Amino acid sequence: LVLCVQRTSAFYYGQFPDNFAWGVSTSAYQTEGSWNEGGRGPSIWDTFSKSPGKIVDGSNGDQASDSYKKYREDVQLLKQLGVKYYRFSISWSRVLSNGTLASRNEEGIQFYKSLVQELKNNNIEPVVTLYHWDLPQKLQDMGGWESDSIVNFFVEYSNLMFKELGPQVKMWITINEPYDVAWYGYGTGSQAPGIKEPGTKPYAVGRNLILAHVRVYKLYKESYAPSQGGKIGIALNSDWKLPKTNSQEDRQAADRAKQFMLGWFASPIFGNGDYPEVMKTRAGSRLPSFSLQEIIDNRGSSDFFGINHYTTKLVENSPSMDAGESYSKDLGVKESFDPTWDGPSEKKIYPEGMRELLKYIKSTYGNPVVYVTENGVGDCGTIVDETRVNYLKNYIDQVLQALKLDHVDVRGYFVWSLIDNFEWSAGYTKKYGIYKVDFERGGRDRTPKASANFYRDVITHNGFPT
Ligand code: BG6
């Protein structure tokens, strides 16, 4: 007998400000498909997903949700929902097939121009992520994010996108979740490029991700923002971290966990320009330092704080017994979920964590403009997705509470995700869409789930009116 206890947090009735930015998010590799069409070159996710044993169901993004072909239909779904914003990412190897300017692919550039135009025609603002994990394979062969040369390649590619799409795009995100790129790509190896060198590489890669972000931010602010008038930021991800017990060790461990996940990138970009002290102390020289000039340039290098948030973890102090040096050993915690929380195994539902995290961002990083750039929950794909409806309702309400009661400057909220898609190493076993995609058939038909109807109502009422 399994007893399901649905926790409900104290609900607050009220509305969001009039211009609140309601949106949904997707990414290129997870949705586009057409991996070898229209001149697209291979990315590290093509390589990784086709390496045996990397994806639980042995699948890949070759066709994915077919959005390269069905983008007009996707825009109609956005219209049905009533969202004013659509966050998608550009596949770097679709616009530059081997990542460099010499491999410019007109057909790929045209695809994104058409998508942006279609959005505009339907009164939907594009929010464009430049890097959502699908590095051109050719650049990986040249060292990828480990090599300092990546910074210039990223600047050249971004410059091209600002030039081509900038007249229409007013909101840019440089990099999605640098934490995941550095840690899962180079620490655990569970994501592309699948490297497992947890003591040094995540730190080296993290540094290049920050430098690349800062250079592209400066480029946009100096050369494009004055004439194009848009904003540019980054999307960081963080769980909320609760101490498992009230002991001083566990409270310090929870704080350390925030610093090692969010602070690693937020402190350079939104804080004092440098890594959190606790990371510098614990990782020592394996955390490559910033020069004074870099610290100055890092500081304040974002117009807004994009935050992707999904779940909360209980954290206890736990010196790692791992042999050898590693980021996890530097961090020294054990994380778990409270067994009373509802929800799927790795994304437990604890809505209060959303408000706590937003408050923490406000108090730690000087009250920045915040957008929740991703929030959602995975399940097995049912149309009557009560868990997701319950999740979204309570998480959105916590955003409202942060805004109304704690005066966090939240300007927008984006559900992950518009449609079911290729869920990285989980393949198609886990679904996040508020629209179902029929992966059994080539046509990849879309059907609204209960959560799509629910979200449309929230947008229509601009929250939860009394
Ligand atoms: C984020 C990513 O980590 O969360 C998305 O930006 C991803 O691309 C989503 O699909 C769901 O994550 P997870 O960890 O459940 O696979």
Explained architecture:
This protein is α/β, with parallel strands linked by helices and 466 residues long. The protein has a single domain, classed as Alpha-Beta Barrel (TIM Barrel). It contains 16 helices and 15 strands. The strands form 4 sheets. An 8-stranded parallel beta barrel has the order 2-3-4-5-6-8-11-12, surrounded by 5 helices. Helix 15 links the parallel strand 11 and strand 12 (410-416). Helix 7 packs parallel to helix 9 (201-228) and helix 14 packs parallel to helix 15 (386-404). 53% of the residues are buried. The model has no long low-confidence stretch (mean pLDDT 97). The structure holds 6-O-phosphono-beta-D-glucopyranose (BG6). Residues 27, 30, 176-177, 180, 237, 308, 347, 374, 378, 416, 423-424, 426, 432 line the site of 6-O-phosphono-beta-D-glucopyranose. 6-O-phosphono-beta-D-glucopyranose (BG6) binds at residues 27, 30, 176-177, 180, 237, 308, 347, 374, 378, 416, 423-424, 426, 432.
Bound small molecules, by name, code or SMILES, are: 6-O-phosphono-beta-D-glucopyranose
> What is the third-level CATH name, the topology?
TIM Barrel
Q: Please give the alpha-carbon distance between the first and last residues.
A: 38 Å
Number of helices: 16
Strand content: 15-25%
Spans of at least 5 consecutive residues with low confidence:
none
Strand count, sense and barrel status of the largest sheet are:
8 strands, parallel, barrel
Q: How much helix is in the residues?
A: 40-55%
What's the CATH superfamily, by name?
Glycosidases
Number of domain modules: 1
In CATH, the architecture is Alpha-Beta Barrel
Overall residue-averaged pLDDT value: 97
